[in-house]
Amino acid sequence: MTTPVAQRPFVLSPPAAPIERHGNVDLHLPTRADPAPAVVVVHGAPLPPDAADPRDWLLYRGYGALLADSGVVTAVISYQVTDLSALPAAADDIAAMVEQVRGDPRVDPERVVLWFFSGGGLFAADWLRAAPPWLRGIALTYPLLVPFPGWEVDTRFLPVDALDSGAHVPLVLTRAGRDIPPVLAGIEAFLPAATAHGWSVRVIEVPDGQHSFDILDHNPQSEAAVVTARDAVLDLLKAT
To answer: 167-190, pLDDT tens digit by residue?
Structure first.
Protein backbone atom coordinates (compact mmCIF):
# COMPACT_ATOMS: atom_id res chain seq x y z
CA MET A 1 0.00 0.00 0.00
CA THR A 2 1.30 3.46 -0.88
CA THR A 3 2.06 5.65 2.11
CA PRO A 4 -0.19 8.76 2.12
CA VAL A 5 1.73 11.95 1.44
CA ALA A 6 0.91 13.30 4.90
CA GLN A 7 2.65 10.32 6.50
CA ARG A 8 5.80 10.31 4.41
CA PRO A 9 8.75 11.13 6.67
CA PHE A 10 10.82 14.26 6.28
CA VAL A 11 14.29 13.73 4.90
CA LEU A 12 15.91 15.11 8.08
CA SER A 13 15.26 14.33 11.74
CA PRO A 14 15.47 17.64 13.61
CA PRO A 15 14.55 17.70 17.31
CA ALA A 16 10.87 18.35 17.88
CA ALA A 17 9.91 21.87 18.92
CA PRO A 18 6.99 22.98 21.07
CA ILE A 19 3.95 23.57 18.84
CA GLU A 20 1.02 25.83 19.59
CA ARG A 21 -2.14 25.81 17.46
CA HIS A 22 -3.90 29.14 17.07
CA GLY A 23 -6.82 28.87 14.66
CA ASN A 24 -5.31 27.94 11.29
CA VAL A 25 -1.74 28.69 12.38
CA ASP A 26 0.67 26.28 14.06
CA LEU A 27 3.63 27.98 15.72
CA HIS A 28 6.80 25.92 16.07
CA LEU A 29 8.66 27.72 18.82
CA PRO A 30 12.40 28.07 19.41
CA THR A 31 14.05 28.16 22.81
CA ARG A 32 14.81 31.84 23.29
CA ALA A 33 13.47 34.70 25.39
CA ASP A 34 13.73 37.60 22.95
CA PRO A 35 11.40 38.16 19.97
CA ALA A 36 12.57 35.92 17.14
CA PRO A 37 12.43 36.30 13.38
CA ALA A 38 9.69 34.30 11.72
CA VAL A 39 9.14 32.12 8.68
CA VAL A 40 5.60 31.56 7.41
CA VAL A 41 5.31 28.26 5.53
CA VAL A 42 2.67 28.24 2.77
CA HIS A 43 1.77 24.72 1.66
CA GLY A 44 0.75 23.63 -1.82
CA ALA A 45 -2.69 23.92 -3.41
CA PRO A 46 -5.22 22.91 -4.49
CA LEU A 47 -5.68 19.89 -2.23
CA PRO A 48 -8.42 17.27 -2.36
CA PRO A 49 -11.33 17.97 0.03
CA ASP A 50 -10.41 14.90 2.10
CA ALA A 51 -6.71 15.74 2.41
CA ALA A 52 -5.20 15.80 5.89
CA ASP A 53 -4.48 19.21 7.37
CA PRO A 54 -1.02 20.13 5.99
CA ARG A 55 0.01 21.30 9.45
CA ASP A 56 -0.04 17.63 10.44
CA TRP A 57 2.02 16.41 7.49
CA LEU A 58 5.44 15.12 8.52
CA LEU A 59 6.89 17.27 5.74
CA TYR A 60 5.80 20.60 7.20
CA ARG A 61 6.31 19.50 10.78
CA GLY A 62 9.85 18.68 9.74
CA TYR A 63 10.47 22.14 8.34
CA GLY A 64 8.89 23.68 11.42
CA ALA A 65 11.17 21.73 13.74
CA LEU A 66 14.23 22.41 11.59
CA LEU A 67 13.72 26.16 11.61
CA ALA A 68 12.72 26.34 15.28
CA ASP A 69 15.93 24.49 16.14
CA SER A 70 17.72 27.35 14.35
CA GLY A 71 16.08 29.99 16.54
CA VAL A 72 13.20 30.96 14.24
CA VAL A 73 9.49 31.03 15.03
CA THR A 74 7.98 28.96 12.25
CA ALA A 75 4.32 29.38 11.37
CA VAL A 76 2.85 26.52 9.36
CA ILE A 77 -0.50 27.74 8.14
CA SER A 78 -3.56 25.95 6.80
CA TYR A 79 -5.91 27.29 4.15
CA GLN A 80 -8.52 25.73 1.89
CA VAL A 81 -8.36 25.64 -1.91
CA THR A 82 -10.30 22.81 -3.50
CA ASP A 83 -10.86 24.61 -6.80
CA LEU A 84 -9.27 27.59 -8.51
CA SER A 85 -12.14 29.95 -7.79
CA ALA A 86 -11.06 29.89 -4.14
CA LEU A 87 -7.61 31.39 -4.80
CA PRO A 88 -8.56 35.03 -4.04
CA ALA A 89 -10.23 34.18 -0.74
CA ALA A 90 -7.32 31.93 0.23
CA ALA A 91 -4.81 34.66 -0.61
CA ASP A 92 -6.66 37.05 1.67
CA ASP A 93 -6.70 34.40 4.42
CA ILE A 94 -2.96 33.89 4.02
CA ALA A 95 -2.32 37.62 4.34
CA ALA A 96 -4.41 37.73 7.52
CA MET A 97 -2.51 34.79 8.98
CA VAL A 98 0.81 36.47 8.22
CA GLU A 99 -0.37 39.50 10.18
CA GLN A 100 -1.49 37.20 12.99
CA VAL A 101 2.03 35.80 13.16
CA ARG A 102 3.62 39.24 13.08
CA GLY A 103 1.37 40.28 15.95
CA ASP A 104 2.57 37.51 18.27
CA PRO A 105 4.77 39.04 21.01
CA ARG A 106 7.37 36.28 20.52
CA VAL A 107 7.92 37.37 16.91
CA ASP A 108 10.06 40.22 15.61
CA PRO A 109 7.50 41.70 13.19
CA GLU A 110 10.20 43.37 11.10
CA ARG A 111 12.00 40.13 10.20
CA VAL A 112 9.76 37.75 8.30
CA VAL A 113 10.33 35.40 5.36
CA LEU A 114 7.52 33.72 3.42
CA TRP A 115 8.31 30.21 2.20
CA PHE A 116 6.05 28.84 -0.55
CA PHE A 117 5.91 25.18 -1.56
CA SER A 118 4.59 23.54 -4.74
CA GLY A 119 1.21 24.96 -5.83
CA GLY A 120 1.46 27.53 -3.08
CA GLY A 121 3.92 29.30 -5.35
CA LEU A 122 1.05 31.01 -7.16
CA PHE A 123 0.34 32.97 -3.96
CA ALA A 124 3.83 34.47 -4.09
CA ALA A 125 2.64 36.84 -6.83
CA ASP A 126 0.95 39.22 -4.37
CA TRP A 127 4.14 39.55 -2.33
CA LEU A 128 6.39 39.92 -5.37
CA ARG A 129 4.16 42.67 -6.69
CA ALA A 130 4.09 44.66 -3.44
CA ALA A 131 6.61 43.51 -0.85
CA PRO A 132 6.12 45.22 2.52
CA PRO A 133 9.21 46.63 4.27
CA TRP A 134 9.23 43.90 6.93
CA LEU A 135 9.45 41.11 4.33
CA ARG A 136 13.11 40.06 4.30
CA GLY A 137 12.75 37.61 1.43
CA ILE A 138 10.72 34.93 -0.30
CA ALA A 139 11.66 31.26 -0.52
CA LEU A 140 10.20 28.94 -3.15
CA THR A 141 10.61 25.16 -3.08
CA TYR A 142 9.63 23.15 -6.18
CA PRO A 143 7.20 26.00 -6.84
CA LEU A 144 4.38 26.17 -9.33
CA LEU A 145 4.99 29.57 -10.94
CA VAL A 146 2.91 29.19 -14.10
CA PRO A 147 -0.57 27.60 -13.92
CA PHE A 148 -0.98 24.08 -15.22
CA PRO A 149 -2.23 23.83 -18.80
CA GLY A 150 -5.99 24.30 -18.86
CA TRP A 151 -6.17 26.15 -15.56
CA GLU A 152 -8.11 29.41 -15.62
CA VAL A 153 -6.36 31.56 -13.04
CA ASP A 154 -6.84 35.23 -12.21
CA THR A 155 -3.89 37.31 -13.40
CA ARG A 156 -3.31 38.21 -9.75
CA PHE A 157 -1.74 34.76 -9.35
CA LEU A 158 0.90 34.88 -12.08
CA PRO A 159 4.29 35.25 -10.34
CA VAL A 160 6.20 35.75 -13.58
CA ASP A 161 4.05 38.75 -14.47
CA ALA A 162 4.48 40.18 -10.96
CA LEU A 163 8.24 40.54 -11.39
CA ASP A 164 7.99 43.78 -13.34
CA SER A 165 6.59 45.80 -10.45
CA GLY A 166 6.94 46.33 -6.74
CA ALA A 167 9.85 46.50 -4.33
CA HIS A 168 12.45 43.81 -4.88
CA VAL A 169 13.26 41.37 -2.07
CA PRO A 170 15.84 38.55 -2.21
CA LEU A 171 14.56 35.21 -3.46
CA VAL A 172 15.65 31.64 -2.72
CA LEU A 173 14.42 29.03 -5.20
CA THR A 174 14.92 25.28 -4.87
CA ARG A 175 14.64 23.42 -8.18
CA ALA A 176 14.23 19.64 -8.40
CA GLY A 177 15.77 18.38 -11.62
CA ARG A 178 13.25 15.56 -12.04
CA ASP A 179 10.21 17.69 -11.20
CA ILE A 180 7.04 17.48 -13.24
CA PRO A 181 7.28 19.32 -16.59
CA PRO A 182 4.81 22.18 -15.84
CA VAL A 183 6.72 23.09 -12.67
CA LEU A 184 10.06 23.04 -14.47
CA ALA A 185 8.59 25.11 -17.32
CA GLY A 186 7.38 27.71 -14.87
CA ILE A 187 10.79 27.95 -13.22
CA GLU A 188 12.42 28.27 -16.63
CA ALA A 189 10.13 31.21 -17.40
CA PHE A 190 10.55 32.78 -13.96
CA LEU A 191 14.33 32.84 -13.57
CA PRO A 192 15.27 34.85 -16.69
CA ALA A 193 12.40 37.25 -16.03
CA ALA A 194 13.64 37.78 -12.48
CA THR A 195 17.16 38.45 -13.74
CA ALA A 196 15.90 40.84 -16.40
CA HIS A 197 14.02 42.84 -13.77
CA GLY A 198 16.93 42.98 -11.36
CA TRP A 199 15.82 40.51 -8.69
CA SER A 200 18.41 38.71 -6.59
CA VAL A 201 17.74 34.98 -6.83
CA ARG A 202 19.71 32.22 -5.15
CA VAL A 203 18.99 28.92 -6.90
CA ILE A 204 19.49 25.65 -5.04
CA GLU A 205 19.71 22.74 -7.43
CA VAL A 206 18.62 19.19 -6.63
CA PRO A 207 19.57 17.53 -9.93
CA ASP A 208 18.15 14.09 -9.16
CA GLY A 209 15.25 15.30 -7.03
CA GLN A 210 11.59 14.62 -7.68
CA HIS A 211 8.74 16.96 -6.84
CA SER A 212 8.56 16.65 -3.03
CA PHE A 213 12.12 15.31 -2.96
CA ASP A 214 12.24 16.24 0.74
CA ILE A 215 9.91 13.33 1.54
CA LEU A 216 10.41 11.09 -1.52
CA ASP A 217 14.17 11.01 -2.02
CA HIS A 218 15.94 10.15 1.21
CA ASN A 219 19.54 10.64 0.16
CA PRO A 220 22.47 12.98 0.87
CA GLN A 221 21.60 15.24 -2.08
CA SER A 222 18.12 15.92 -0.69
CA GLU A 223 19.43 16.41 2.83
CA ALA A 224 22.03 18.90 1.62
CA ALA A 225 19.45 20.84 -0.42
CA VAL A 226 17.12 21.23 2.55
CA VAL A 227 19.94 22.36 4.82
CA THR A 228 21.19 24.81 2.18
CA ALA A 229 17.70 26.25 1.75
CA ARG A 230 17.34 26.56 5.53
CA ASP A 231 20.67 28.36 5.75
CA ALA A 232 19.74 30.70 2.89
CA VAL A 233 16.50 31.62 4.67
CA LEU A 234 18.41 32.25 7.91
CA ASP A 235 20.75 34.56 5.97
CA LEU A 236 17.75 36.56 4.74
CA LEU A 237 16.49 36.97 8.29
CA LYS A 238 19.89 38.18 9.50
CA ALA A 239 20.21 40.80 6.75
CA THR A 240 19.83 44.41 7.78
So the answer is: 799 999 999 999 999 999 999 999
Candidates 204, 123, 140, 135; CA nearest to 168 is: 135
Give the model confidence (pLDDT) of 117-150 as tens digits. 999 999 999 999 999 999 999 999 999 999 999 9
187 vs 182: CA distance, rounded Å: 9
Provide the pairing of β-strand 36-42 with 73-77. parallel
Q: Minimal CA–CA distance to 6: which of 59, 82, 81, 63? A: 59
Q: Which long-range contacts (CB under 8 A, 24 or more apart) does 235-240 make?
A: 236/113, 236/136, 236/137, 236/139, 236/170, 236/172, 237/37, 237/39, 237/72, 237/111, 237/113, 237/136, 237/137, 239/136, 239/137, 239/170
pTM: 0.97
Q: Distance of alpha carbon 153 from its chain centroid, rounded?
A: 20
76 strand-pairing partners: 26, 41
